[in-house]
Here is the input.
Amino acid sequence: MAETAAALRTLAQNVKAARARAGLSLEELSRRAQVSKGALVGLERAQGNPNFSTLIRLADTLGVSVSALLQGSPEGRVRIVDAEAVAPLWTGARGSEARLMLTTSGPAPTEIWRWRLEPGEEYPSHPHQAGVVETVSVTAGRMILIVDGTEHTVEAGRTATFDGDKPHGYRGAGNETCHLVMTVHLPPGPAVAGVSGVCGGQK
Here is the structure.
């Protein structure tokens, strides 16, 4: 419970700071991100339990990454992250999951994700802000990548890339669990002080 409370406080502080930098009122952020004002008020008070989709909409609207909303101050010049130490931001009913491992620093940061997709399970993603580019590298199994309504099969050992400003989704295929590493390349945005990386999406 203490870790959850601390994470909510960090999220609240980062959302408020990003909203102030963007010069948005609660009403305007609510309208643009399609998140209720009540939910935003609760979030900025470190209350509630925002889901993955809400975090992505807020990050896109504020021009930052999901990591910028979730992470605290950077620790040291080298970061080594254990996948098991990172809580999944999305879990599916069949056991699929997505973990945001870290976000690189710099004016155009990159999010690094680890995904596990069980056969037949799908995660649909809404379009991201213009300039976002996603890359998926399948390390085991097989997945179906859906971009703007078209399906593409990506097998182990293959890598695919696409513009993230179109509707897209990921579905496990075949009979085995699909493991993949995803990178989300974000367009240059305003610097974010006091967080690990400039931002934090997509997904």
Observations:
- The chain has five helices and ten strands.
- Strands lie at 90-91, 97-103, 110-117, 122-125, 133-140, 142-147, 150-155, 159-163, 168-173, 178-185.
- Helices lie at 2-22, 26-33, 37-44, 52-62, 66-70.
